[in-house]
Design a protein that fits this description.
Layout: H1 7-10, E1 14-16, H2 35-48, H3 54-58, H4 60-67, H5 72-87, H6 90-102, H7 111-116, H8 120-135, E2 138-140, H9 149-158, H10 161-170, H11 172-184, H12 190-198, H13 205-217, H14 239-242
Antiparallel strand pairs: 1-2
Length: 256
């Protein structure tokens, strides 16, 4: 089987930066999947949640081959997404993607939106994402917000698994709300999030409460823009106040 291109090669969202990584501050349960399965699943979910352009459709045969080596909790739902992409005309796929992810806030792929809406706190959260990538030696391009789920999963597939794991679990309520939104629309892309959720630990009490609160109330709303996102973390005199990376679990020995 020919290997899939690394995400940095097929999308070019991230650029290597020679800056040493640090570890996340809040502990989450360690992954139970083998690291290679975790990275491969995240890479494929990142691909399949991307806009269905000609390049993605040209990778479907390679994706099919890669699915054969994954746990069934991932290969099953991702295989259904691939089948959907094969069976629907390209123009209809693209229209459905835009209607689902770009015009429906309940299916936003930007994780910080669920917790913070369009408020100042979201701007701060975006800075924290960007700092986490930078501390792991990667720099996100200016054409993407750093909390986009495909960007985060690409980072986890090719970069620091531990930091990506922390960010995913910190924003677990957003992942759950995205799943609910896609299932409500009966969207084929719900299966991609199902595969992602299979790699994550069960919801803890705090996360479940956050999901229930967001379902009941929705994200906060404040029309102030995202000014904090313009803050360059390199100029921040107290970057560790934004996201301490001092308490990192070891994922190398994790087994499925």
């Amino acid at each position: 089987m020919s290997p899939l291109p690394r995400p940095m090669e097929w999308l070019g969202r991230l650029r290597q930066q020679p800056e040493p990584p640090r570890a996340p501050s809040r502990r989450h349960p360690a992954p139970t999947w083998r690291e290679d399965d975790l990275r491969a699943t995240w890479q494929l979910v990142s691909l399949l949640l991307s806009y269905p352009d000609d390049r993605l459709l040209g990778l479907l045969d390679d994706i099919d081959e890669a699915l054969a080596g994954l746990p069934p909790e991932a290969s099953g739902p991702l295989g259904r997404v691939v089948a959907h992409l094969r069976s629907v005309p390209l123009a209809a796929l693209r229209s459905d993607y835009v209607d689902t992810f770009d015009t429906t806030r309940k299916c936003a792929l930007h994780l910080t939106y669920y917790a913070h809406g369009d408020t100042r706190k979201r701007g701060i959260a975006l800075v924290q994402f960007k700092q986490a990538y930078r501390r792991a030696g990667l720099e996100i391009g200016d054409d993407e917000l750093p909390d986009h789920l495909s960007v985060l999963l690409e980072f986890g597939a090719t970069g620091d698994v531990g930091i990506a794991w922390k960010l995913l679990n910190d924003h677990r309520a957003g992942v759950e709300l995205l799943q609910l939104g896609l299932e409500t629309r009966r969207s084929a892309w719900a299966d991609a999030v199902t595969a992602l959720r299979a790699t994550l630990p069960p919801l803890d009490g705090t996360q479940a409460e956050a999901v229930a609160r967001l379902v009941a109330e929705g994200p906060p709303n404040e029309d102030v823009g995202l000014d904090a996102y313009s803050l360059d973390p390199r100029l921040n005199p107290h970057p560790d106040d934004d996201l301490s990376l001092s308490d990192h679990f070891d994922v190398q020995g994790a087994t499925r």
